[in-house]
Amino acid sequence: MPRQFTFSLQGLLRAYLGSLLVLVLVTAGLSLAWALVWQQSSQASLRLNGLLVEAQAVRGDLYRQMKEITRLGEAPSRDAYWRRLYRIDEHFYLMRQYADTDATLEAIGRMEEAYELIGVVLNRLAYTANQAPDERRIDELLNPAYDRWMTGDFEMAYDDLNELVADRRQTLQARLDRWLALAPWVSAVPLILAGLMVWRVSRRFRRGFTQPLESLVQGTDALGQGQLDHRVPEQGVAEIRYLARTLNRMARELEASRRELVERERQAALGALVPVIAHNIRNPLAGIRANAQLLDAEATSAEVLETGADIMEATDRLERWLAALLAYLHPLRLDPAAQSLDAVLEAAVAALGPRPDTQGVTIRRQGEDVRLNLDGALLEQALHGLMSNALEASPAGGRVDITLASDERVVRVHIDDQGPGMRIEPDPDARGPLPTTKKRGTGLGIPFAYKVVQAHGGQLRFEDRDGGGTRVTMILPRSGGASA
């Protein structure tokens, strides 16, 4: 049993939009996470680089300051010394701004403490620069051994800071490497998620909307072709189920209306046929009864033979009429197939038997053959009745012409006789037999022909010919005309 959807088309569209929104949010979240990691790593790398630059600047300014202390007697050198002192303080300030961990601040603090110890010595020499220079202290300052001893703590603190920065850089690089390793997999997540969502949404859309809509269209076509017993499956989204229920209800109502209409037409046809049936049966029975009364004991053998012949003729006429009536009243069920129309015409002519030769009437067929989708047996019976009428209407020595003509849309069969013409114009909607003066006529040949031709989707026309006679034209569509 197909799954019944409990939501509407609007709900299905909302689910589709919701899935799309989830996909967008997941993609945006992954992109934002990657951007944040990259931004944090970049900012941390910039801070570390700035920290190293400032630390190197402090170290460089320190050693330049120590060299300039030997030239403090010169005004330019003394000014440069004090400017460099202020610059070193700015570098330490910036280093503390770049620091983002306690370990980094501790390393910077050790550098500052070592620099302050060195600064005490340098500043003492700077304060005595306007007096006589302390040559001995300057000589000690210029001594490499003393220089290493005085700057040893500073260099150790500077090296510790460099190692700390190097460790931080390795940590950042390892973090970036992990993200870079995960990047192909992380970037595949939106694609996989998109594929799953598209598959699921497409599947639900197909089962909930597309397939039920196709069934609805097929059901509409079936009902349009007259298959009122066809029912559309009531499945899919709410709107499609509503349409299917409405279409099925309409089909049931149409089927009930058609049955009621058929019953009404049948009753009307029977009502119209009852007087004709009574008349056509009463007359032969009256003749049979009258002839039977003549068969008394005093009747001669010749009278018996003549009366018996009249009785048999009346009985045969009654049997023919009843057979034609049953054929007319029986519902038509077409069995169409691709057939040669010329072969159907030939069979209808052959069914006339020796009657054309007996009556001295020539039957001539002309025109190119065509193949149509039709019920050959029923069409042959209808053509036989029309040809029989034309044969009986034509005088001895006359001719009946049967002509095939066709174009792109229809095929026409013309039956022309040389009789006196029709006294009345046949009604295609007549519910009973037509009046007839023919010895073998039943009045049902033309109504039956109308019924067969209309079942094939065609038309039957009668018109007088110029110069006498009647033309019967049977018009049949080239394709798609036959219907059950």
From TrEMBL:
- Which ranges carry the HAMP domain? 207-259
GO MF terms on file? Answer: ATP binding
- Organism field: Spectribacter acetivorans
What is the name attached to this protein's record?
histidine kinase
Q: What is this enzyme's class at the first EC digit?
A: transferase
Transmembrane segments annotated in the record for this chain: 15-37, 179-199
**Where is this protein localized, as stated in its record?**
Cell membrane
EC code: 2.7.13.3
Region: Disordered; residue ranges are: 418-441
Q: Where is the Histidine kinase domain?
A: 276-480
One Pfam family cited in the UniProt record for this chain: HAMP
Q: Which reaction does it catalyse?
A: ATP + protein L-histidine = ADP + protein N-phospho-L-histidine
